[in-house]
Amino acid sequence: GLACAEILASKGISVLVLEKKGEVGPKVCAGGVTGAGLCRDLPPGLIERTFRTQHIVTSLQQVVLASDLPMVSTVDRGKLGAHMLDKARAAGATVRPDAPVAHIEADRIIMRSGETIVYRHLVGADGSVSLVRRYLGLPTVRVGVGVQYHIPVSLPHMEWHLDARRFGNGYAWIFPHRQRTSVGAYISHAGLRPKELQDHCREWAAARGIDLGTARPEAARINYDYRGWRFGNIFLIGDAAGLASGLTGEGIFPAILSGKTVANTILNDHYVDADFARLLVNHRRHCRLAACTATNGTLCRLVMESLVLGLRTGLIDFNLLEMADQG
After folding, report:
1. What's the predicted TM-score (pTM) here?
2. What CATH class has 2-141+232-321?
3. Which residues contact 227 (CB under 8 A, 6 or more apart)?
4. Which pLDDT tens digit goes with each residue over 154-168?
5. Better pLDDT: 111 or 45
6. N or C: fewer beta carbons within 10 Å in the chain?
């Protein structure tokens, strides 16, 4: 949403950003950004750790993928949000925290305070439980669940653990940051309640010798039920549009790219973004793979082991698993 606001405001458009919470930016997020995605576009100060190797572990294989270029970096989602907030405000956007919306009408929104705000264009950047999406009457069926813990030590390696017994067709992760590590798990369907996923994550971490101690769990729904992004003068971006990866839960790159695409479409109705078109192709591929492995445990293990074997032998490029993959 802030990427969209910055572009529009910089072109002289009157932009109002409404944030229902008291602070703009922080959200539950492991903070991974890929080399093909946002890494090259972020200020160096926002990059916490950069990894040229990726450790992937299954019940049958342990693989280390290596590259001369950064494969994945970690960012602090709160700091990234604050950076984007500063840029949006500097461009001229008005940002109002503590501004929850009560309901939406065809040309106006009604705040919980009773205030009415008329709009020409409405952009829903309000996450996986989007009020704008509900107003449009779009169902949300395909939803993943992610849970993470922060431990106060920066572990040496970035790791992905495909453990079908605990996480189905999802995975557990170890994403080191500058002074901490995000340890968590993702599953592509809501078959596990967040509390169950937390228990499985703690069990897995203990088996790996990782002490989560009294670390507080953070859980989030991840919407990948994409059903369109433009509805007349109303737009959806990021998780509100269901643009996160159903396979990995990756959401930062799709959110920012879709925000830029919406802004440029508002400015030029004939705007076409090849990168966004490619993102939609990748999204469909990720969803198909997530769907075919979600309910059949044997098929899930076969596909995941084959995928890792392909990565190990070089038959599959790691970029294929990224939402920014250019094909």
Report:
1. 0.92
2. alpha beta
3. 138, 139, 242
4. 999 999 999 988 998
5. 111
6. C
